[in-house]
Design brief:
With 121 residues, the protein is mostly beta strands. The protein contains no helices and 11 strands. The N and C termini lie far apart (41 Å).
């Protein structure tokens, strides 16, 4: 059993900050990439940021300079520091982990349940 749990979502004003976290637990041997996605109403799910096991990161253009993703491998966690939040950042944010379970011969993707981020004046 593998579980990903997001936390830290909430309601913030434009220009405000919020920090999301995602913790993976269960029978995990190794985690490759951890990625934050988001989905706004009526929109497709989109990649926000990803962090490889070595700490290297990727971001979509619209969040560059505002969001920072980081890993803490020993705790199987990934965080997303979101600054200068805009109305367009409103979405459900999901955590994804590409990981190898103990006893499994291959990596698989797992998803968290999502956490709501609402940016509103």
């Amino acid at each position: 059993q593998v579980q990903l749990v997001e936390s830290g979502g909430g309601l913030v004003q434009p220009g405000g900050s919020l920090r999301l976290s995602c913790a993976a637990s269960g029978n995990i041997f190794r985690i490759n990439v951890m990625t934050w996605y988001r989905q706004a109403p009526g929109k497709e799910r989109e990649l926000v940021a990803s962090v490889s096991s070595d700490g290297s990161t990727r971001y979509r253009d619209s969040v560059k300079g505002r969001f920072t993703a980081s890993r803490e491998n020993a705790k199987n966690t990934v965080s997303l520091q979101m600054n200068s939040l805009q109305l367009e950042d409103t979405a459900v944010y999901y955590c994804n982990a590409n990981l190898l379970r103990v006893g499994s011969p291959y990596y698989s993707d797992y998803w968290g349940q999502g956490t709501q981020v609402t940016v509103s004046p």
